[in-house]
Design goal:
Shape: globular
Number of helices: 12
Mean pLDDT: 87
Number of strands: 15
Oligomer: single chain
Length: 374
C-alpha cells in the first residue's frame, strides 16, 4: 500500500477480500474481456472457489471503463479517480444542514471530518481546510453542543463545494523538470532543470510517501535554520525519525545545471518554515504556469516543510494558511507535487550564485540581495 506503483501495464490489488485488476490498454484496440487484468481476475475467482471461498458474482465485473471499488470511483476513459459519489452526495447534504443549524458537538464533527478526509485523500491539500473544524471542539466534551463560529460555517461550505474537485488526474503528464527551493533570512528562491519525461516517470516512483514533523521550529532553532547553522539531525524533536536522503536525490541535487525562475526578498518578519513552504509553493506555481496538468518533482532541505506538504496539512495554523492560499491555482493548473529530500549542503537553491544556464553556458549570478526584489 505504501510502495510505488508497478511499472507494468497491469496491476493487481487486494484489500481484505476485494480483488481488483487494473490494466492500461490502447484506446483503439480495446476489446472487452481480452485484457490481462480480466484474465487475472478469472484466475483469482477460480482460486477462490477452489479453496471454498464463494465470490460474490453479482459484484464482479470485467473490463469496465468506469467502476467503483475500495471506496473510490474510477473513470478509466477520462483518467480520473475520486471518492465515491455515494458517500460524497449525502455528506454534502449533511454539511449544509449542519451549517444551517449553526450548532454541533464533538462526536458529530468527528464523524463528518472522518468522512471528508476519506474523500479529500484524492486531493490531499484540501485537508488544510479542516483546521478550524478540528479546533471547534478542542477542549469540549464530545457530547457537548457548541455554537459554530463564522469560520466553522464558511469552511464547511467550501468543503462541500470542493468535493467534486477532490480527484486525481491519472493522465497528468509525467515530470519533465526537476526543481528545488529554499529559504533563508533574506528570502526565498526556486530553481529547475529540464529532464526527459521517461526519467521523470521513474524518479516519481521514488518520491516521499510519508510525513514527519509538521510543527514550526522553536524560535531558537528557527533562528539557526534561517542562518544555515542548524544541523539537519536537530531539525526535529528528539525521538522523531528524520528524513534521509539517498544517492539518487544527491545526484539530482548536485549534478544538474539549474535555471533560476525566481528569488524573492522577504517582506516583513516571517518564520523560516513559512518561508520554506512559500518557496516550494511559488516554485510549483511558476512551473505549473509553464505547463499545466502535470506532475512536478521538487527537492527541498526543510523537513518541516516537506512533512507538511506530504501530509498536506499541519498542526501549525500558519502553515495551513499558506497551503490554503495555494489551492486556487493548484486546482486551476491541475498540478501535482512529488517531493524529495535534499541535504542542505547539496541543495543548490540555497545559493543561486552557483550558476544559471543561459544559452547552453553557465554564468555566475549576483548575490541574493542583488537580485530584483519580488
Amino acid at each position: 500500500m505504501y510502495k510505488p506503483l508497478p511499472r507494468c501495464a497491469t496491476m493487481f490489488g487486494l484489500v481484505i477480500d476485494d480483488f481488483v485488476a487494473l490494466s492500461r490498454v490502447p484506446r483503439r484496440s480495446f476489446v472487452a474481456g481480452e485484457s490481462e487484468g480480466a484474465s487475472g481476475a478469472d484466475k483469482m475467482q477460480a482460486a477462490y472457489e477452489e479453496v471454498k471461498l464463494i465470490p460474490n458474482k453479482k459484484k464482479a465485473f470485467r473490463d469496465e471503463l468506469q467502476a467503483s471499488f475500495w471506496g473510490a470511483d474510477l473513470d478509466g476513459e477520462e483518467g480520473i479517480v475520486k471518492g465515491s459519489l455515494k458517500r460524497a452526495i449525502p455528506l454534502a447534504g449533511l454539511i449544509l444542514r449542519l451549517v444551517r443549524a449553526g450548532h454541533c458537538c464533538g462526536n458529530v464533527m468527528q464523524i463528518i471530518l472522518g468522512s471528508v478526509i476519506s474523500l479529500f485523500l484524492f486531493r490531499r491539500r484540501f485537508l488544510a481546510l479542516l483546521d478550524a473544524c478540528f479546533e471547534s471542539y478542542r477542549g469540549t466534551a464530545m457530547d457537548e453542543i457548541y455554537v459554530l463560529s463564522g469560520r466553522c460555517k464558511s469552511d464547511p461550505l467550501m468543503i462541500a463545494v470542493l468535493m467534486p474537485l477532490a480527484a486525481t488526474n491519472l493522465r497528468a503528464a509525467a515530470p519533465d523538470v526537476v526543481a528545488a527551493s529554499d529559504a533563508s533570512n533574506w528570502g526565498e528562491a526556486g530553481i529547475y532543470c529540464n529532464i526527459s519525461p521517461m526519467i521523470g516517470r521513474e524518479l516519481m516512483r521514488h518520491s516521499l510517501r510519508k510525513s514527519v514533523w509538521t510543527k514550526l521550529l522553536s524560535p531558537s532553532r528557527a533562528l539557526l535554520k534561517a542562518y544555515g547553522e542548524l544541523p539537519e539531525d536537530e531539525e526535529l524533536p528528539e525521538g522523531e525519525e528524520p528524513y534521509k536522503t539517498n544517492a539518487l536525490w544527491t545526484l539530482l541535487a548536485e549534478s544538474l545545471t539549474y535555471r533560476l525562475p525566481f528569488a524573492r526578498e522577504r517582506r516583513g518578519r516571517r518564520h523560516i518554515n513559512i518561508g520554506e513552504v512559500r518557496g516550494v509553493l511559488r516554485t510549483e506555481k511558476l512551473l505549473g504556469l509553464r505547463k499545466p496538468s502535470r506532475r512536478i518533482l521538487l527537492g527541498a532541505d526543510s523537513e518541516v516543510a516537506l512533512g507538511a506538504l506530504t501530509k498536506a496539512r499541519s498542526s501549525s495554523t500558519a502553515i495551513n494558511e499558506e497551503l490554503c492560499r495555494s489551492l486556487p491555482w493548484m486546482i486551476a493548473l491541475d498540478s501535482y507535487l512529488d517531493l524529495m529530500y535534499y541535504n542542505t549542503s547539496s541543495n543548490r537553491a540555497d545559493d543561486p550564485t552557483r550558476g544559471k544556464e543561459v544559452g547552453g553556458a553557465t554564468r555566475a549570478l549576483p548575490q541574493w540581495h542583488e537580485l530584483e526584489k519580488g
